[in-house]
Design goal:
Rossmann fold, 7-stranded parallel sheet, 3-stranded antiparallel sheet, alpha/beta, homodimer, Arc Repressor Mutant, subunit A
DNA sequence: CGGCTTCGTGCCGCTTTTTGCATCTTTCAG
DNA sequence: CTGAAAGATGCAAAAAGCGGCACGAAGCCG
């Protein structure tokens, strides 16, 4: 959903969007929202107070944060959210533009894929399968026909479930596009993430989907996480916020991976 | 459809168009519709109220939005959360006191069970299995060893997943206590909830657990929801905030169900 | 056919909600 | 300790909503 749409919205809808925005970005400031929605800071403050009262977000000095993020404010997850937030937002918008109405999407964990989910408001009739518990909450309801959550053990830092993947796939699902956020990408090791269970899961996801989009912000270029997922060629498309270093760019080209740099 | 066609339409057709318009745009304002259909704002308001009553859209100040679109307090779920807040909090504290360290808990959907999860901070080494996506977020991390989320289709109003239950149970899990929030409890029909899928799921949960605690606030006494779960005797314990009416109390006693009234 | 009811509609006065502004207080960082 | 930013509070105007009322069209029935 483009941000110009946020002006001239009804009060109730505006608050709903606001909650979605907070959950997608992790944090927002009052002045930021004021200019985004084109309303006075007082109204923003009242909105935030109103929503905080109902536990939909947590109020802080200067703005608000997602309610879940406050208790774990110093976790790496929340930190990452803040640090790379504009890069992620740009990637998210670019990816949302590459999705068509009616597609079936497989979405894995990570703050980038979560931001994408929040940007899918312009789409319709999507079917979503995800192991990312934040996704159902930030997904605009009017965008999707059905949402399926993959069961499994819950990992608090990443707000995802792991495991049981093979079951979900054994049930026989057909997926158009996998949206995969990864922990690292390099010419030597390919794609990688933080845990072995997640790596196995992601590899399965890629195998299941007809098309795989890998989403990485530039901070992950040339960086390898703990567990390897597979070679670069597993991805059909890589969406990022800056041009990768020459070595990685060359490796992507050689693997025939389309590179999309979000404007 | 061109917008000039919208004038001089019969009331019924006009309302149908109106719903279509709301779904397409996500939001509409009263004045906008007034000029579009060439009718007074009063009629528009009446139309919107009429349609909102049927759940075809959600009424807001100044217009209406697509029904699923309000993440905020207007959903029945959040409404219940607010309305019965103190009662739920009392029940939650009472239940938390009845749980021991190291137990394995099965927690279903509902605002009451969610409140319980938030109160479990004093416990340690719990293992939690749930289909309630809000539970992992409100559960104090230090209280639990592991959290498992049951997969399935996501229901936005209740923030739960449904389905796939049998799989989770087929995997062979052993559960000490099931914490079950229900939609209704009465002497005649026993326990009931809003959807058939959930009723089946809850019945399976009860079957799996050694001990079943049913959590109900007093607003549900004598009230039957749509789908029956089973007789009162399925519960080992009922925790509530007020003494039930004599008829229900007698039925509980006859079924040998322990009754706990939260102070 | 004529009287009757019902429904949809528009209008009027009054209440409620929302919003922006001004003023005073609190919080936070250097 | 101090100044700037953020927040709280009170207030007034505009917009929206609510309830009652009247009028006309359509349908019902003797």
């Amino acid at each position: 959903m483009s941000e110009t749409d946020l002006r001239d919205t009804l009060p109730a809808k505006r608050r709903a969007e606001l909650v979605r925005l907070v959950r997608a970005r992790g944090q927002v400031t009052v002045t930021e929202l004021s200019s985004l929605f084109d309303i006075s800071v007082d109204t923003v403050r009242r909105d935030l107070d109103h929503l905080a009262e109902r536990g939909l977000l947590a109020r802080t000095h200067g703005g608000a944060v997602a309610s879940g993020d406050l208790v774990t404010q110093d976790t790496p997850f929340a930190e990452r959210l803040v640090r790379q937030k504009t890069a992620k937002a740009r990637i998210a918008r670019a990816v949302a533009g590459l999705i068509s109405d009616g597609e079936t999407l497989l979405i894995n964990g990570g703050s980038t894929t979560r931001a994408v989910a929040a940007e899918l408001g312009a789409r319709r009739n999507l079917t979503i399968v995800t192991n990312n518990l934040a996704v159902p909450q930030v997904l605009p309801a009017e965008a999707c026909r059905d949402i399926y959550v993959m069961g499994g053990q819950y990992r608090n830092e990443a707000q995802v479930t792991v495991g049981e993947v093979r079951f979900a796939f054994a049930a026989g699902i057909n997926v158009d596009t996998a949206l995969i956020g990864v922990g690292g990408i390099s010419a030597e090791r390919g794609l990688s993430t933080t845990s072995i269970a997640e790596a196995v899961m992601i590899a399965d996801m890629i195998k299941t989907a007809k098309r795989t989009m890998v989403l990485v912000d530039s901070s992950k270029f040339g960086h390898d996480s703990f567990a390897d997922i597979g070679p670069l060629s597993h991805a059909h498309m890589v969406v990022t916020d800056e041009l990768p270093p020459p070595e990685l760019a060359a490796a992507l080209a050689e693997s025939k991976v389309d590179l999309v740099v979000a404007p």
